[in-house]
Amino acid sequence: MRKRIAVAALTLALGGGIAVLPASPAAAAYTCHYSRNTFGYWQAGYYSGTTVQPSTTGVSSAGIEAQCLLKHYGYNPGTIDGVFGPNSQSAARRFQADMNSGWGYDLDVDGKIGPESWPPLRVQP
Questions:
Q1: What is the CA radius of gyration of the chain?
Q2: Any stretches that span the bilayer, and where are they (predicted)?
Q3: Domain 23-123 in this protein, CATH class
Q4: Where are the alpha helices (DSSP H) in 36-125?
Q5: Whole-angstrom Cα distance, residue 16 to residue 84?
Q6: Are 35 and 45 in contact, with CB atoms under 8 Å apart?
Q7: What residues are paired with 35 via a beta bridge?
Q8: Cα distance between residue 70 and residue 39, in whole Å
């Protein structure tokens, strides 16, 4: 009986469409849907707030939103995957530095998108 179950499981795994290796959630690429809300703030369709800091270890709607908005302004965060890793943090640092030097903000240039950085990320032309 055990042998039949093992053979059936192996057959399914090899040819029956069962994924043998787990899919990485960070490998998924999300599509950005840009729009302005009634107050003129940019949105990409995943998170509408201004307080949540995107996760550096897991997929989050705030991470997708921040990556989309950074990409929209020309700061390449890498793959839009919702994980705010090194590429996204580098893009955020460039954004923060540019907002300080070009627009008079006083943002920490730390690569983190939080309550201080969300507003300029939402209102840029």
A1: 20
A2: none
A3: mainly alpha
A4: 61-72, 86-103, 118-123
A5: 35
A6: yes
A7: 43
A8: 19
Give the domain ranges of the chain. Answer: 23-123
* Per-residue pLDDT, 2: 47
* pTM, rounded to two decimals: 0.77
- Reading the chain (125 residues) residue by residue, the pLDDT tens digits are 544 444 444 343 333 333 333 344 555 699 999 999 888 999 999 999 999 999 999 999 999 999 999 999 999 999 999 999 999 999 999 999 999 999 999 999 999 999 999 999 999 76
Q: What per-residue confidence (pLDDT) applies to 103?
A: 93
Beta strand residue intervals within the chain, DSSP E: 35-36, 42-43
Please name the residues in contact with 104: beta carbons below 8 A apart, sequence gap of 6 or more.
none
